[in-house]
Amino acid sequence: MKQMIIHGGKPLQGDVWIGGAKNSTVALIPASILSRTPVTLEGVPRIADVDNLMDLLNEMDVESDFHETTLRINPEHIKMSPLPTGKIKSLRASYYFMGALLGRFGKAIVGFPGGDDIGPRPIDQHIKGFEALGACVKNKNDQIIITAPEDGLHGATIHLKMPSVGATMNIIMASVTAKGQTIIDDAAKEPEIIDLATFLNNMGATIRGAGTDSIRIEGVKELRAQAPHTIIPDRIEAGTYISLAACIGNGIRIHNIIEEHLDSYLAKVEEMGVVIDADEDSLYVYPAGALKMIQIKTAAYPGFATDLQQPITPLLLTAKKGEGVIIDQIYPKRTGHIAQLRKMGANIKVEDNIILVHPTKQLHGAVVSAGEIRAGACLMIAGLMAKGKTVINNADNILRGYDRVQEKLRQLGADVKIQDAPDNKDEEEKV
Ligand code: EPU
């Protein structure tokens, strides 16, 4: 287990560069096996999920090489292998191998995906999609076995019950090589879906309407990657640094941003009174003055992202008066960070899955635990704001999703260290 040690209270300033989007990357790596030719991804973030996906590729005899921010994947010698256990459990996104293997081989055997502890995360819509394309889906010994009919998958019209990011991406991957036309109605509209469609279209797929709620896919025989694909910037990492800059920044410029991807987030931050200047692909966050309390409800894109409700929570604590309300409609039980913030002196509570936030003059250091990636981001910001030393246990969860985080925070002037947790529990508890 890793832990992040923070000596907080230092104002931060300078420049930070956002990496490629985690939630694109973790789909594009499995999608790479749809190509008959080598794939090059540029702007790949240094996160643990990438290492885990590379290990899974290796199990299928797919070579990969990650240098700086370029990931080369060669699926020319791929063998169809079951991916029943092991690494598959270590990340949610391993479920993309279902759609990718099905699209490439007409068969997938994949263990039930693992991932963050943020409440129930069913995959019924993914399965409904595969079945609509003609596949037979069976569950056996904690594995999902998906088999296309003998004459291959065929196009179909699929109405999703909700705009699921994972189901939309998985159905796209399975249907790019199906016979005929597939239509996904009520599809997710996240920028990461457009990124996947662009990546596949550049390999010869015919996907139209990505970014709208109706996506149409004309099946093609095979895909062949040619030019490198540059991954879009991570809007959630960007939002995390915007919150950090507003909480404890003394003027921070955040580079490599697509501002439009952050519209609903920026609207809320600016409603609080944070002043932000936008440039072509960067934002400058001024040191914050007296801030107003706000209410937030998460929603599917282009609404306020569930992945940004935890990172913005410390900012609400700095408001001068009033009661803040945060409701996560995507994952109502994504509230594990609240008990941890309370350990740091935050005046915050959860009632019936509604987070109620009250102004808090000063957080203090504590030993806390990051139950999932975004809870980790929230605690990291709180630790930087707090007086004294904060120890974030399970910091592995932060490393799963935040590109070169120690380096980036240090560049802004933070006193932060990521280290292996000591075996001795007493040592670990000392603050
Ligand atoms: N849902 C179902 N059935 C399904 C699929 C989804 O009921 O078959 C429900 C979920 O329970 C949830 C809602 O639909 O209430 C939306 O879930 P979605 O499928 O969109 O989420 P996901 O694809 O599993 C991705 C990201 C999450 C992010 C969500 C929402 C990846 C690997 N994960 O998950 O990212 O929170 O979309 O935007 O892309 C994170 O980065 O911290 C993270 C958890």
TrEMBL record:
GO terms for biological process: cell division; cell wall organization; peptidoglycan biosynthetic process; regulation of cell shape; UDP-N-acetylgalactosamine biosynthetic process. GO terms for cellular component: cytoplasm. Its main location: cytoplasm. Phosphoenolpyruvate binds at K22, N23. CDD domains: UdpNAET. Its EC number is 2.5.1.7. It catalyses: phosphoenolpyruvate + UDP-N-acetyl-alpha-D-glucosamine = UDP-N-acetyl-3-O-(1-carboxyvinyl)-alpha-D-glucosamine + phosphate. Residues 7-409 form the Enolpyruvate transferase domain. It is found in: Cytoplasm. One of its GO terms (molecular function) is UDP-N-acetylglucosamine 1-carboxyvinyltransferase activity. Signal peptide: none annotated. UDP-N-acetyl-alpha-D-glucosamine binds at R92, R121, P122, I123, D124, Q125, D307, I330. Pfam families: EPSP_synthase. Keywords: Cell cycle, Cell division, Cell shape, Cell wall biogenesis/degradation, Cytoplasm, Peptidoglycan synthesis, Transferase. NCBIfam families: murA, PRK09369.1, PRK12830.1. Belongs to the EPSP synthase family. MurA subfamily. Cell wall formation. Adds enolpyruvyl to UDP-N-acetylglucosamine. This is UDP-N-acetylglucosamine 1-carboxyvinyltransferase. The gene is murA.
